[in-house]
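Help! Submission page says 'invalid entity' but I think these are all valid:
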Amino acid sequence: MSWEVVLTAMLPEHLLLAGIIVLLALELGPRKPRGLLVVALVAVAAATTAALWLAFIGYAAAPFPGQYSVAPVASLGKAIVLALAVLVLLIARDESGQRAFPILLISSLYGVCLLLSSDSFLTLFLGLELMSLPVYALVLLAFRRPESAEAALKYLVLGGTATATLLMGVSLLYGGSGSLALSTFASALGSTDIMAKVAVVLVLVAFFLKAAIVPFHAWAPDAYEGAAVPVTAYMATIIKAGVLLAAVRLFGTVPVTRPMADLLAILPLVSIVWGNLAAMRQQSFRRMIAYSSIAHAGYLFYALLGEGPGRFQAVAFYVLAYGLMNVLAFASLPPNENDAARDRLDNLRGLFRREPFAALMIGIAMLSLAGIPPFPGFVAKFLIFKNVIAAGFTLYAVLGLVGSYLGIYFYLRVIQYLFMSTEETAATRGTPGRLALGASFICLLVVILLSVFPGWVIDRL
Amino acid sequence: MADAGRLNGVLFLPLAGIAAIVALPPRRDDLVRGLSLAVMLLQFALTAWLYARFDASVDGLQFETRLPWIAAWGVYYQIGLDGYNVLLVLLTAFLGPLVVAGAFTAIQKDVKLFYAMVFALQFAMLGTFLAQDLFVFYLFWETMLIPLFLIIGIWGGERRIYATLKFVLYTAFGSIVMLAAVIYLVYSLNATTGVTSFAFADLYKAELPLPVQTTLLAAFALSFAIKVPIVPLHTWLPDAHVEAPTAGSVILAGVLLKMGTYGFMKLAFPLFPDATRMLAPVFGTLAVVSILYGACLALVQTDIKKIIAYSSISHLGYVMLGLVSLDLLGIQGAVMQMVSHGVVAGGLFLMVGMIYERCHTRELAAYGGLAKILPVYSVFLAILTLAAIGLPTTSGFTGEFLVLLGAFKAAWPQYVLGSAYPLVLSTSAVAGVVLGALYMLWFAQRFLFGATKAPHLPLVDLNLREKAILASIVVAVFALGLFPDEPMKKTELAARQYQQLVAGNRTGTRVAAEPVLRDAPSPAAQASEGTR
């Protein structure tokens, strides 16, 4: 282990750590700290650049062999997650008063980076916990409503359950193989040993819990609704991306066979159907997005049914497109007197006549989430279902597609509110901040890039 | 190649139109309207130029562009004109300026968004017709939904939300099933031949077992049949038509419904020929049911728009019948019928829009004797009515006549009720012609003649803009009716190719067989004899 390797390979992590230290130092200073958000932005943006650079030069090294390694694929995953985090920070103007917000957010990002480079279950566990713990606090931190305490508690308890399940599964894997390496999971996938099977199921359930797959989804709507808008965006994009990219790392390129494939397909399928059905009757924008994220987690786990390097490609493209859509929607959500008012779908009625740009952006986000071309959500979904059919799971692919059809209605309902309402029920207060507008524009540019040149992007994943 | 560049120009001009009208200063609606019309006219001029340059004796694509788009999947951005799409592209470009001009006074709300959506729709429709790659085709096919969803939903009538959601949810269901079939088809092509390609030309070569063909055909057919629409999947159409603004109805009837029949002709039937031959009697039966059912329902409607909506179902039934007859005359008739219906139904919906703007009701009972108070309007309506019935010398005649001729000779390998089945079907279709004359003439009689009656009096007759719109439609109606030779020559090779792909043997000798077939008397010539 040379220091040079440690410095280079973990550059994104180091930059995040530097950001945390600077933020803490500012916090200790005598005066009320200012510009915390700017420091956080700079740190995350620098980390993004570093990760992109590592991916671009194809850097591969293992500073801590057997525990932590970097390969271009891992760096690319980090770059996607970190870039999305930059956008989330841009829409967090209202949170700038909360001193702990940037520190917690960067700590969680550090966890995601660790997760995406983990080679053993020890590092994986460390990363997963480091990613989740700050988010429990973030949900609680943003509280302006009493009922949110319930949401945070639910999230914490179910998150703890996931941790316990994961540890149980890992210890069974260890018992069977005597190793904590991630590859034990992939070899247990095809094993007929009952202990290995139970271990795989337990680990899978932990991931299902973290990604909010039915029936382990109950925390998501409450937590999403209870948190502040940027925190919701963070949970919907970065946490989901981190968990799924980690799952891809866990599964490697080993094909999934029956009966494990059925488990991996049926619960996500139920998620797709249930998430889309439940989203239809929501009146809160964030609750709707929560159910939509449950459905999208289903598509993402479908990607694991596919084989080989296509898995990473499909998941990476999907989380990129999906994350952009969520950030775009949340960035364009017009400000209102409080979070609850901002969140009500009814308040979006007739938005096109007041804020045409915001309405168009939310509209694009909804259409893309629904998977309607020419927006990137379609190509992302196509990529996943193509891999699933190529792996021979035609029936699951057809059922998943029909399940995704169910979602079209509620996305269109938002568009109906935005464009087709003649009444204007509630006026918005103020205009979106310049930073949020900037985030919208960046999202829009990337969306156009992904729509017009999807092939170019796919080739680079 | 310069002409390939022009074809791309035709396709992307609507996007330039969107950019241009978005850049215009706010509250200058007149500028938006003028600019939109100019862009549409330019597009029509370009298309007409390409149509004139289109060489009828060349088999295959002309003005082709092929660029790698998603290289990893073998997806190419590939567009081009061939006998299948050349008339439909021309039809789309022809209706564009009329739609824009027809909405000058009717649309007063969110004018910019409206014309942007009309352009977006135009882009998606042209893209669907021009695409020669299944992925690109699907992309455009689905993209069409959004602008029409907004056009009906924002500028529609009272029940517009219901109508537009019903339209989108119906079509999207078909599309999603088709998407699964598309992926499976491409995957099977890869598994059997090792080629990863979405190009139509490659997919035609896929040799699939009959059960797979049947399943995939069912999936494609569901999507296309909803769009056509074929009874019993038609229930979205009357709602969408009635609630849509005039522009929406015109595009819907004029172009969008042809997407379905075009899809059958270009994709569903030639891709799965064995299954198509087996199921041809079933499709034929459904087509005749559509003809008769649509005609019967048109007979009893009290809303003018609904009469024309149901008549569309009936008229597209002929197209389907011609396509499944697998007879060259029938196929060419189907193509002519598509174009003719686009022009005539588009014109009729424009005329309904004009009277609606004046009186704000579409109830047939509210009108009567318009011939006396609106003489110019009545003359145009009478001409379009006769064209809809299919009177010789109008565009409707050629198509219907050839379709019926083809249906009599339908060469189906297996018969449901013995060899007489095509005869039964075509005889019933002839009954549909009679019914068609009945409901259209009865409508015209109640509308134009009898005691003078209108919600408001006095009524102003057509102004210059409206006259110009309708005059261009009438010119097209007679041009197609009197000189069917010209367009039929341009589509003949495609009709032959389609026939050979579906009815011929699979091992593709279509190019080699061409010179022999060319010596036979042209069916176009036979058709014009029939016209005389």
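Support: the input was valid. A stray whitespace character was the problem, and the output above is from the cleaned input. The interface with chain B takes residues 352-353, 367, 372-374, 378-379, 382, 385-386, 389-390, 394, 397-398, 401-402, 404-405, 408-409, 412, 415-416, 419-420, 454-455, 458-459 of chain A (CB under 8 Å).
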